Amino acid sequence: MSAADLAQVAASGLLIGLLYALIAAGLSLIFGLMDVVNFAHGELLMLAMYATFLLNRAAGLDPLLATPLIALFLFALGLVLYRGLMARALTVTVNRGMVQIFITFGLAIFLRGAAQFAFGAEFRSIPKSWLANESARLGPVILPWPQLAAGLIAFLAFLLLFLVLRSEFGRALEATREDREAVALIGIDRERIFALGFGLGTGAVGIAGAALAAFYYISPDVGANFALIAYVTVALGGFGSLAGALLAGILIGEVEAFTAFLLTPSLKQLGMFALYVAVLALRPQGLFGARQ
Amino acid sequence: MSHPHALPAPSLLLAHRRRGLALAGFFLLLLLGGAGVSDPYTANLLIIALLFAGLAQSWNLLGGFCGQISLGHALYFGLGAYLTTLARLDHIPTLAALPAAALVGGAAAVLIGLPVFRLTGHHYAIATLVIAEAVYLLFLNWDWVGAASGLFVSYQGESWLDLSFRTSKFPYLLAMLLYAGGITALAWALSAARLGYDWRAVRDDPAAAASLGVGVHQVKLLAALLSGAGTALGGGLYAAYVNYVDPDSVMASRLSIEIALPAVMGGVGTLWGPLIGAAVEVPVSEFSRSYMGGSGQGFDLMVYGGLIMAIALFRPEGLASLLAGLRRRGRTA
Amino acid sequence: MRWRPGGRVRFFAALVLSGFLLAQSMAARAADAPDIPIGAVFPLTGNGSEVGLDAKAALETEAEIINTPHPPIPMLLGAGGGLPHLGGAKVRLIFADSQNDPQKARAEAERLITQEHVVAIIGSYTSATAATISQVADRYEIPYISSDNSSPSLSARGLKWFFRTSPHDVMFTQAMFDFFDWIGKKTGRPPKSLALIYEDSIFGADSSRVQKEMAAAAHLPIVADIRYRANSPSLSAEAERLRAAHADVLMPSSYTNDAILLMRAMHELGYQPPAIMAQDAGFVQKAFLDAVGPLAEGVMSRSAFALDAVAARPAIPAVNQRYRARSGKDLNDLTGRELTALQVLADAIDRAGSTDHEKLRAALRATDIDGKQTIMPWQGVRFDETGQNVEATPVIQQVIGGAYVTVFPPEVATHAPLWHVGE
Hints:
The complex is a heterotrimer.
Chain A: H1 3-34, H2 41-59, H3 63-91, H4 96-119, E1 135-138, E2 141-144, H5 145-166, H6 168-178, H7 190-213, H8 224-237, H9 242-262, H10 268-282
Antiparallel strand pairs in A: 1-2
Chain B: H1 10-35, H2 40-65, H3 74-89, H4 94-116, H5 121-141, E1 151-152, H6 170-191, H7 194-204, H8 206-211, H9 216-242, E2 244-245, H10 247-250, H11 253-266, H12 273-292, H13 299-314, H14 320-332
Antiparallel strand pairs in B: 1-2
Chain C: H1 7-30, E1 36-42, H2 49-67, E2 91-97, H3 102-114, E3 121-123, H4 127-140, E4 144-146, E5 162-164, H5 169-187, E6 194-199, H6 202-217, E7 222-228, H7 236-245, E8 249-253, H8 256-268, E9 275-278, H9 286-292, E10 300-303, H10 316-327, H11 333-352, H12 357-365, E11 369-370, E12 380-381, E13 395-400, E14 403-408
Parallel strand pairs in C: 1-2, 1-3, 3-4, 4-5, 6-7, 6-8, 8-9, 9-10
Antiparallel strand pairs in C: 10-13, 11-12, 13-14
Helix pairs in contact in C: 2-10, 2-11, 3-4, 5-6, 8-9, 11-12
C-alpha cells in the first residue's frame, strides 16, 4: 500500500462524503425548523433519482442540466407533502413525536410501493451522460468526473443554503424556529415559513438525487442505502446545524472509505457508528448542536 | 393524572380492576377460539399477531409508559432468537433457554440504557437505531453464529420441552397466548403500581418528576430491563417457531419498526393499544402480501404504508380510542 | 350545520378502499379453473423482486408451453395441450410473495399447501427463504423443487422432499477451476493469482467458501479476500484494494446493483483486471449489461444456461421468443433454470399419472431426462439420494460483442474465449 493509494482513498471518501452531507442537510434543516425527523427522506432521494432518470430517457436531458429542474420538482413535492401531510401532523396534540415518526415512516413504505408500481422493480441507471466514464487526474489521484461533479454540486448547494439562511427568509426561518408562537405577532406566517422550509429541505435532497443518479443505480429500495447514513450524519453534526451536517458528512465519508480500505470492508459502517458513539459520549448534542 | 405520587382514588382502582377483567376475558376468548382453529394459515396468522402483540406490549413498557421511543428493539429480539437457537443446537431444552434469553435481553437493554438514557427525544431514537444496526452488522460478520448464513435447527421429533411440532399449530398458539397474555398482565399490574406512575411522570415531564423525587434514570433503566426481557422472550419463541434465524430476519432495523408499530397504531401507553394494533396490522400486512403481493406491483406496500399514515393522521391516539369512543357513546345512550 | 367528513370517516374510507382492492384481486384469482395447482414462492416485492418477477414470467412461459395448443417445440412436454397421462390436465401456477423474508416465505409455503392444496412448490431465489420453505414442505410431505438456490448446504440436511434441478455452488465453482486448468494448458498462460470479492450474505459466504477451498486445492494464491457490505453507497475503497492487489483473475459474487457499482468503481480508477470470472447473479442480469455497457466486455461467468447453444438445444429459440414476449428480456441463467424446474416437475406429475404426493415423489426420484429434451446445456436431470440433480453440468460464458456467449466446455462452446492473463 502506497501513499498514492491512501490519497486515492481519501479523495473517494471526500467526494461521497460531500453527497452524504448534502443529503443530510435537507434532513437537518427540516429538523431544526419544526423538530421533525423525516423517515421518508431516503424515499424522496429515490424519487429525485427516478425523476432524473425519466427526464434523461424522455428528453435526453443530461443529469447535470436536470439538477435545477429536479431541485424545483422536489421543492414543489415538499410543499405538497407539507400542506397535505406534515401540517396536519404538526397540529396533533397527543403523541406528537410518535405520530410524526410514523407518518413519515408510513409515507416511506407508500412511496416505495408506488415506485415499484410506477417504475417496476428493475435496477435502472442512466446509460449515457456527458461525464460518464471520464476521469480527472490530480497527480496520482484519479477523480471520476461524475463523482467530482456531484461533489462540486453538493458544495455549491451548501453555499446556496448558507446564503438563503442569511437572507430575510433565513431570518424568518430562524425566528420561527426560536419561537413558534411569537412570530405571528410580528407578521410572519408560520405555516408559510414551515412549508417553504420543508420544501427547501426536500429541494436539497433533490439536488443530491440528481447528482447521484449520474453514476449510481436506481431502484425502489435505493433510498434505504443512504437513509441510515443521513440520520447518523445529522445526529453527529448536531440536529438543525448545516455546518454540522457538512463536517459530519465528510467525516463519515472518510471513516467509511478508510475502514473499507485498511480494515474489513463489510464492517465499514461500523467505523461510522463507532465515530458517532464516540462523539455522542463526549458531546451528546453532536458536533455543532445547541445544548439542550 | 395530577400528581405522580397521589394514591389512586377508589374509583380509579375499580376501573383498573375492570380493565384487568376485560383483558383476562379477551385472552380467555382467544384461547377458546384458538382451540377451534384447524386451518394452519389462520393459526399462523393468530400466532404471528399474538407474537407481535406481546412484542409491542413489551416495547410499550419503555416507549409508551415511560415515553422513550426506541427504534432499536430488533436488537433484543435478535439476541433472544440467537440465544434460543444456539441452545437448541446444543440440545438444551427450548423451555430452559427461553428464560435465559429473556435475562440476556433485559441485561442488554440495561447496558445500552446506561449511556443512551442521557439523550432525549430524537437523539435517543437515532441512537437506539444506530446501536441496533451496529450489532446487526457484527452478527452478519460473526462466523461463530453462522454470520450471514444464519443458523438452522433441523426437526428432531415432537416435544413440548423443545416446543417442536411437525405440523400442529396449537402448541405454538398456546405459547404465544401465554406470552402476549403474560406481558399484558405485567403491564396491567404495573400500570397501577408505583413504578407505572413514576414512568408516566418521567414521560410527561422528566424535570418535574425529578423534582418530586423520582429517580428518573433508575426508573428508565427498569423500563428498559422489562422491555428488553419481554422482547427477547418473543425472539426466543419466534426462533422455536420458525427454526431458522439469520441477521436479516431477526435483527434488521425494519423489525424494530414492526415491533413498535402495533403499539403506535393501537395506542401508545395503553393496555389495549398493542393488542388492537397487532390485531389490525398483522392481518392487513399478511393479507395484502398474500393476495396482492403476488401481482408484484407494490400494491401491498402502498396499502400498508397508506394505512399507517391514515391511522397516524386521523387517530393519533390510536385505534384503541375508537373502542373507548364507542363505549362512551353506549353509556350515554 | 354543514357536514364535514371527519377523521374517522376518512380513515374508514381508506379501510373500505383497501378491502375493495383485496376482494378484487381475490376474485380475479378465483376465476381460473382449478387443474393441477403448483405453488411458486419468490420475492415479488422489495429487495430481490426484480429477479422474482423475472422468475414469475419464466414459470408462466413454461406453463403456457405445457398447457396451450401450439406448434410443437422440440423438448419434453413441448407439444402443448396439457399433461398427456392425466387426460390433458393443465398445470396452474399460484404465486406467493416471500418478500425475501424466511418467516414470510414459510408462512406463504404453508398457505399454498394447506389452502391452495398445491402438489409441489417451486422456489425461491435466495437460500435463506429456501431453508424455511423446504422445511415446511418436508413436514407436509410435499415436494419442494429448488429451481435456483445454489447454497450446497440446502441439500445436505437430510430432507426427504427436497429436489434441486439446479447445480449448486460446488458444481459451479468446479466448472470455473476446470476452465482455468483448460485455458492454462491451451494458451500456456494459466492464472497465477486470484482476488475474491463477495457480499456479506449467505450467497457471498457460500460462494467464497467453495472458491477458497478449490483455490487451495489448485495451489492458486488468493491475493485479495474482500467481504463487502451489500448495497453500499460506494465501492471505491474496495476497488482500490483490488487495484492494489492486481490479481490475474477477479472472482466477484454480487447482485445486480453492486455488480454495476463495482465495475464502474474499478473503471473510474483506471483498473481493468486481466480476467473477471463472476459467480453469476448480478453479472448476468440485463440491467447490469445495460448499465455498464462496454465495460462488461470480456467478463466471464459460470452459468447453468447457454442461450447460444441453439445447435445442441434446438428448443431454445421458440422458448426464448415466448419468454421475450412476456418479459421483454432474453432467458438467462436464472430464468432458464426456473423454467426448466417446472418442466421437470410437470414431467414427474405426468409420469406419476396422479397428484398423490407419494407417487409424485417416486416419479421425481425416477426422473431421468436427457439434456437434449430441455433447453439447458446439461447432460440431463437425474436426482441422487439427497435430491440433487447430478447431471446439471454448468458452462462458462463470456461477454463477447455485448452479449454472453458460451466458451467452455468445448462440446457446447460457440466462441473461443478472450484470455488476456499473462499477456
